[in-house]
Each structure stands twice: as C-alpha cells, then as structure tokens.
Amino acid sequence: MSSTPHDPFYSSPFGPFYRRHTPYMVQPEYRIYEMNKRLQSRTEDSDNLWWDAFATEFFEDDATLTLSFCLEDGPKRYTIGRTLIPRYFSTVFEGGVTDLYYILKHSKESYHNSSITVDCDQCAMVTQHGKPMFTKVCTEGRLILEFTFDDLMRIKTWHFTIRQYRELVPRSILAMHAQDPQVLDQLSKNITRMGLTNFTLNYLRLCVILEPMQELMSRHKTYNLSPRDCLKTCLFQKWQRMVAPPAEPTRQPTTKRRKRKNSTSSTSNSGAGNTANSTGSKKKTPTANLSLSSQGLGAIPNCSLNPGRDGDLCHSTAVTPSGQFKEKH
Predict the structure, then answer these.
(1) Can you give the pTM of this predicted structure?
(2) Among 157, 164, 118, CA closest to 141
(3) pLDDT per position as a tens digit, 34-56
(4) Which segments carry the region annotation Disordered (predicted)?
C-alpha cells in the first residue's frame, strides 16, 4: 500500500525541503520512529544540505546533544550545539555504518507547560556496520529527550548516557573462516569503542574546539571581520563582562510628605483669613527656601476653605528669589 500525503510518515518525493510539517498530537516516541525512517531513507549521495534538513526537521534551533560514556582513560562527556548536530549524524555513517536506528523501551513521559520530557532507561542505539566487517552493534544506555510542546514537536535537548555495548557477528561468517586463524583473530577484535566509531569519537573531540569558536564564526560571518579582529572583539567583550560590577536593583527614592499645619483660626472676615494665611506661610520659610530657592520662582499650592476673588477654593503662594512670599490668586 503506497503512502499518501495524509499519512503522518509521508515523505515528499521532492525531498525534505518541500515536506510540510503536520501537527503531532501523538506520543513523542513516534517522533523517534519518524527519525528512524528518515535515517533509513539516507543514500550515499546525501550531502550537507540533506543533513541540515534532517536536523531542522527533528531538532530545535537552540537544541543541544550530549553524550556521556566511559573510556579506558576515564569518563567522557561531550555537548554540541545545533550547528554541529548534522555533522555528528553524518560521521556515524562515514565510519562504516550502513544503518542506524533507536529503540525505546518502557519510556516515561512528563508534560510541562511548554515541553515534554521523555526518560527512557532502556534505550538501544543499533548500528549495522558493513566494514571493516559485517557486524551489528547494540549500544545500550539511558536516553533523556526534551521536546517542545507545539505542532512541530522538535527535540530541544538530547542526552544519551551509554552504559554498555555488544558487537554481534553472524555465525555464518565465523563458519566461513573457521580454518583461518588470522581472520578469526581479526573478528575477535572490537571495531567500536563504547559503540562509537573512531570517526565519531574524533569528531566529538574536535567539537570541544569548534563549540567555543561558534561565536567567532558567527561574528566573522555577520560583520565580515578578520579572524584576529573577531578574536580581539570577543575577548574584549568577555573581559568587560568579567570586570563589570553586578547590576544593583534600582531603588525608587522615598519622598516623605509633611503634614500641613492648619492656620490659626478662620474668621468671618476674608481679610483676616488672608492675614492668617500669610502668617502660616512665614513659618514655612526655611522649608520653602531649601526646596525652591535654587529654582528662582516657585509656587506652592495652598488650599483654603475661604473662597478667593473668583470663588476658587485654591490659591498659590509665590516665592521670589529674595525669599519673600507673594500671594497669587
């Protein structure tokens, strides 16, 4: 039965660039199944554009891939960014691998606001090697994936911790070379280290140098600077961040409001009320001089219960540069 465009695993005959992403309201494990199908569709002619399209389909723009394992000289941990992920998968096939797929058993899913985490303690990375000899390698470990909770459901973080691996050689090959001690000795030797080929291990070691240089490469591509100028600029900015004091939270100045003292006593005579207001204003001369003397002429609004000339309840008192008060209605 041929696949149709309505099939969620449908692959356009025009290539991954013309493939339309469909909404994924399914379990995240199906994304790993789709990734396995995409890896199986790889050909010997697949170039860097094909691998970039592969990484764009299954990994976020800020995704990271981490591998943890233990070699003869101690534990290793490599973390690469999104720009180096396509090359990582291509190096697996450059090391003699003809097939690559992942098997997840008894995985646990946890849903968050914007992401889905898949924790599989029994994950197996299976690689089929065609050279130097026909061998099937099963690399077992723990795989922790974080998917974005959206329509594309792409991988944001990939962390594979390798515990053990097994290299399986068919009995038919052993029977063919049963009388040849040299071939049997060659078949008894491992062709991988913790399930990884030498091509992949060398690339991971190279990524330790390439990953910090991503900022230099990006600056060179954006500003068209020479490598030396890019290095100087990056080092200067890093030095500025190191010597800059930590930013302190801005505090808003607290202003204390003083309570106004009521005028002595209000009289029925408006002239007496104005005299009382002038007397109260003279008592506040020091405060007015401190706050308004530097500004030349200021005005302090002063509300009174007695109406002014136009019937307004509020009038203002002006301060002259000499410090004297002058009422303004």
Answers:
(1) 0.61
(2) 164
(3) 999 999 999 988 899 999 999 99
(4) 244-329
